[in-house]
Predict the 3D structure of the following.
Amino acid sequence: MGILTLFVAFLGIRLYGFLIGDPSQAIADTAYDLLAANAVFLFPRLFAALGLCHFLPGLTIPRSHAILFSNDNIF
């Protein structure tokens, strides 16, 4: 519920800044700060959603193993 509340607050502040025509863009900056705060909560949910894919967990370990232990690694 907090994610949705932050997103609705972002939309409200962004529309308010658009409708009043804020020339200093301070209201838009506040809206984007709220959107960034919302991203902090959404980022872990991305990995939870990707964990539901049946093929993804099986690919991540061999791919990382191949990247770390390859002889032609440029790092």
In short: The chain has a mean pLDDT of 76. The chain has one domain: 2-68. The longest helix spans residues 26-51. DSSP finds three helices and no strands in the chain.
